[in-house]
Amino acid sequence: MANVVVVGAQWGDEGKGKIVDWLSERADIVARFQGGHNAGHTLVIDGVVYKLSLLPSGIVRGGKLSVIGNGVVLDPWALLTEIDKLAGQGVTITPDNLLIAENTPLILPVHGELDRARESQNSVAKIGTTGRGIGPAYEDKVGRRTIRVADLADEATLDTRIGRLLTHHNALRAGLGLAPIDTAALKAQLLEVAPKILPFAKPVWKVLTEARRAGKRILFEGAQGSLLDVDFGTYPYVTSSNTLAGMAATGTGLGPTSIDFVLGIVKAYTTRVGEGPFPTELFDADGDRLGTRGHEFGTVTGRKRRCGWFDAVLVRQTCATSGVSGIALTKLDVLDGFKTLKICTGYMLDGEKLDYLPTAANLQARVTPVYEELEGWSESTAGARSWADLPGAAIKYVRRIEELIQCPVALLSTSPERDDTILVTDPFAD
């Protein structure tokens, strides 16, 4: 059976939540493979809005097994808060429908404190983090001093892990003028949360391997977007994990041969939250209109998103680095009523035309977009469920995007409602 990876192909906020929810109806398992609670997905189901930060989008669908993979950094207190919030909306979450990989690293209060202290003291080049400790938690993971879910089950191991962790962090905190961490208090916090988290802990790699062998369909769900990838994004204005499709394999414990289709989620225009380069950003009435009509505010932070025209150069690049099989184009209806639309087809840099975004930060900041203008449409595309429902100019816009990014449209989304979706290619087709 086909297994599908869903990744954001821009800077995040492309509408992955709706698409994952739409696909999850046909999946048996939905697995989150990277990121933390700094990213969010908004689902609209039968008029009810669900906001998720850590939980896989499939959790709101009864009977779907949801998995948090080892590629995620997990704030256990944030997870429990999210579970309680969804319970208030009638969603029951138990170890029967949610699994957490035993080797998942934890985000601790010390990580959030360090994150916020660094950002507040860095007046030269702020990264624009959410201050939730994601970066410091990933640092501890690669520094081999993290506390993982499995460590919560053994007090002696926990003592060793805490000692190693705080040797590092207390030295950092001294340099930032912060008081040292109370070792006993941190241990007490972890021992208190342990019995609430451990029932969900499982060898996820084994569960998923057996499910795949049994012919189960697995939907791998990414957070953020490809342009925030720590290696291939607009560094250093990126997240601290790999957001590309290849992370689905290492972030859950399945090999790359388990991936059959990569679906890149792409907004019909471009947005970005936080700092960093944004070649097609608009500072005029068109940018304001995109933000207002698209309700462009972050699911987790509420921060206003920066808005701009569609950048085909960047999407073509991310389709290549994630090996995208087809894209899901979202929020086409936001463009309704524009007399003229623009698509970035290249960049100019010191008199030279480029067909990719250069790696060096100073060059990224200096590129200027080369635009192609297309005719807009006055008719509404909101709620369209077939090509016949779309204006001719809207179809031309979609087809031109396909040509420029060198990747076909597999799905077309025309509203936040899950059924307002035009299916072109079924990602789960065997």
TrEMBL record:
Q: Which UniProt keywords apply?
A: Cytoplasm, GTP-binding, Ligase, Magnesium, Metal-binding, Nucleotide-binding, Purine biosynthesis
EC number from the UniProt entry: 6.3.4.4
- Positions binding IMP in this chain are D13, E14, G15, K16, N38, A39, G40, H41, T130, R144, Q224, T239, R303
User: A Pfam family for this UniProt protein?
Assistant: Adenylsucc_synt
Q: Which pathway does the protein contribute to?
A: Purine metabolism; AMP biosynthesis via de novo pathway; AMP from IMP: step 1/2
List the Gene Ontology MF annotations in alphabetical order: adenylosuccinate synthase activity; GTP binding; magnesium ion binding
EC class of the enzyme, as a word:
ligase
Q: Where in the cell is it found?
A: Cytoplasm
Q: Which CDD domains match?
A: AdSS
Gene Ontology CC entries for this record: cytoplasm
- Which one GO biological process term can you cite for this protein? 'de novo' AMP biosynthetic process
In terms of domain of life, where is this protein from? Bacteria
InterPro entries associated with the record: Adenylosuccin_syn_GTP-bd, Adenylosuccin_syn_Lys_AS, Adenylosuccinate_synth_dom1, Adenylosuccinate_synth_dom2, Adenylosuccinate_synth_dom3, Adenylosuccinate_synthetase, P-loop_NTPase
Cofactor requirement: Mg(2+)
Residues that hold GTP according to the record: 12-18, 40-42, 305, 331-333, 413-415
List residues binding Mg(2+): D13, G40
Q: Which reaction does it catalyse?
A: IMP + L-aspartate + GTP = N(6)-(1,2-dicarboxyethyl)-AMP + GDP + phosphate + 2 H(+)
* Textual note on the cofactor: Binds 1 Mg(2+) ion per subunit.
Q: Where does substrate bind?
A: T299, V300, T301, G302, R303, K304, R305
Q: Which SUPFAM superfamilies match?
A: P-loop containing nucleoside triphosphate hydrolases (SSF52540)
Active site (UniProt):
D13, H41, K141
Q: How does it assemble?
A: Homodimer.
Annotated function: Plays an important role in the de novo pathway of purine nucleotide biosynthesis. Catalyzes the first committed step in the biosynthesis of AMP from IMP.
Q: Which family does it belong to?
A: Belongs to the adenylosuccinate synthetase family.
Q: What is this protein called?
A: Adenylosuccinate synthetase
Q: Lineage from the top down?
A: Bacteria, Pseudomonadati, Pseudomonadota, Alphaproteobacteria, Rhodobacterales
